[in-house]
Amino acid sequence: MTTPQSGEAPYLATLTESCVADLREHGLSLACAESLTGGLLTAQFVTVPGVSAVLRGGVVSYATDLKASILGVSSERLRTHGPVDRDVALQMARGVCDVTGADIGMATTGVAGPGPHDGHPAGTVWIAVSARGGAQMARELHLAGGRSDVRSGAVRGAVELLAAFLNDGAPGPRANLAVS
């Protein structure tokens, strides 16, 4: 994933606005399930005027047990693989759809740092998008920098993944799309 280094904020703002416009055009709603981003992803969408037409809300499930009890992530998966995992991210995205009634869910989970956690180095992040119809995408990121850099990089990556998801077939005719 490459993005412009200069002009990062305008790039992300424009991409977020484009996602909101696409969601609105297709009559779709969105919700965010966040761990390491702690609400930053939802806050990124809230910067867009009129987002209330599509944004249902967000769930910050920073503690691992909340991923299971609130978002329905498999306790067994969390126990065997930990929270920094592709399937955990996908289950979080699906779970936030169930909790909020949204058509599309997004999720972020990973290690912001400064040190490693559960055997994963700082900067290891999983992001995911899932639609009620079954379409889903997930991507692993390896981000450099401090906590703030990792968290903002995870937000950028998640918005980029949503843009790809909306443009590459979901939730339209390619409803069984699964990308890693």
Automatic annotation (TrEMBL):
Highest taxon of source: Bacteria
InterPro entries per UniProt: CinA-like_C (IPR036653), CinA_C (IPR008136)
Pfam families: CinA
SUPFAM superfamilies: CinA-like (SSF142433)
Residue ranges occupied by any CinA C-terminal domain in the UniProt entry: 14-165
Record protein name field: Nicotinamide-nucleotide amidohydrolase family protein
